[in-house]
Structure prediction request, 204 residues.
Amino acid sequence: MIEADVILFETERMYFRQFRAEDAQLLFELDSDPEVMRFISKGQPTPLNRIQNEFIPRFLEYYRQSPPQGFWAANLRRNHEFMGWFHLRPDRISPREMELGYRLKRSVWGRGLATEGARALLERALEEWGYARICARTLAGNLASRRVMEKVGLKFEAEFFYGENVLPGWTETERRAVKYSTQAKAPSQTIKVPGGSRAATLQL
Ligand SMILES: CC(C)(COP(=O)(O)OP(=O)(O)OC[C@H]1O[C@@H](n2cnc3c(N)ncnc32)[C@H](O)[C@@H]1OP(=O)(O)O)[C@@H](O)C(=O)NCCC(=O)NCCS
Prediction:
């Protein structure tokens, strides 16, 4: 029996759903495109056994968390095609922040889909799920990824270098990276102005 998809939310063109063990092959195909992996592993594919034994178990573990965090598959609403994934997880360098990320199949690039999915996830994270601070990181040369960050309203925060433990065998120049971030707006509250009859809204 094939289990029904567990859907987190929908956008205009896609839906976010939980991964299942059966998705290993789709992830393997995604990570087998050297262009997709260019700024992640210099084009090296991820072995299927790592996807099955490390990544998918980690993805499934995230779904126990509330408010939501983790990796979600993104499928096109039009034909249910698997496009890739988005993540929102504790940042590995500053774990009090949540890190936004995305990886899509080359066949769907350039149509605004990463922007659409990232924007929807960011809005929910800040406005519904109560996360205070969201960041995103990428290698400095990954201009498409940086552009998506800018388009969804993240602001450049800092340049940094991924450690050799993260990208073993890469030179320091190759490990140069950028961090973008944003934070939740302070909640607005309506208060009475002393001595007056009008209410004023202050950003607290
Ligand atoms: C990064 C990625 C998710 C973008 O997906 P996408 O659906 O094509 O993104 P969008 O269409 O929403 O936006 C891409 C933007 O980058 C721009 N862009 C693409 N390639 C670019 C390049 N080489 N230089 C400058 N800008 C570029 C596009 O023109 C577009 O901006 P615009 O709308 O102002 O024209 C996709 O390329 C991908 O999956 N890459 C491989 C995985 C990866 O690197 N993930 C990020 C790791 S941190």
